[in-house]
Amino acid sequence: MAWRYECGPCGVTTGWLPKAQASVKRDEHRNTFHPGMIPKVEVFESNARPVAKDPAALRMWAIIALVCLIAWIIQLIR
User: Fold this and answer.
1) 3-state helix, strand, coil in the chain (%, to 5)
2) Each residue's pLDDT tens digit, 54-76
3) Is 49 helix (H, G, I), strand (E, B) or coil?
């Protein structure tokens, strides 16, 4: 998973970086161009796909939920 930072007022955007590096770039930009304040519009986003848009992950969570439900039902029966 990678992260990027975009400053709204300046239009500065980093490439996709590890979270720690993107955070450092964000802090460096804030300290250099916006000392003492945080820009009102900025984006710090990851390229991870949400579970709802990833069918494989959605199936995995459904299977985990089903296994938990079956285990719970078996405990109630005993």
Assistant:
1) 55, 15, 30
2) 788 889 999 999 999 999 999 99
3) coil
> Which residues have a Cβ under 8 Å from the Cβ of 7 and sit 6 or more positions away?
13, 29, 33, 34, 39, 41, 42
Check if the beta carbon of residue 8 is closer than 8 Å to that of residue 39. Answer: yes
pLDDT digit string, tens, across residues 8-44 = 888 889 999 999 999 999 999 999 998 988 888 889 8
Coil/strand/helix, residue 6 = strand
- Length of the chain counted residue by residue: 78
**pTM for this model (two decimals):** 0.59
Q: What is the CA 18 to chain-centroid distance, rounded? A: 12
